[in-house]
Amino acid sequence: MVKHVILWQLKDELADKETVKKEIKAGLEGLAGKIPGLKEIKVNINGLPSSNADLMLDSLFDDEASLKAYAVNPLHAAVADTKVRPFTKSRVCLDYEA
To answer: pTM, whole model, 2 decimals?
Structure first.
């Protein structure tokens, strides 16, 4: 199993960050059951004030090959290109064997 964890910071100029976070969460969690090898996917949008990230993706894949396939899957790409990338200023990722 492979864990795929991402932390994002939203762009400073966004007027309604709460709505953006909810849309990112709905888009990514909506991929559950639709992409082969994706076992679990959860987006946390309720960080404590001490956090320096706005939201976190926590996902689990069968293996590294499944993670690589997810990255280029058209369903994932559509969410990333319309709900995530236009609104984020930074991304930090950690992938590891679980």
So the answer is: 0.95
d(CA 14, CA 98): 35
Q: Indicate the helix (H) or strand (E) that contains 72.
A: helix 64-72
The CA distance from 28 to 78, in Å, is 10
pLDDT tens-digit profile of 56-69?
999 999 999 999 99
Q: Strand 55-61's sheet: what is its strand order?
A: 38-44, 55-61, 2-10, 88-97
Q: Are 61 and 83 in contact (CB under 8 A)?
A: no
DSSP 3-state of 31: coil
Q: What is the dihedral of CA 88, 74, 2, 90, to 10 degrees?
A: -10
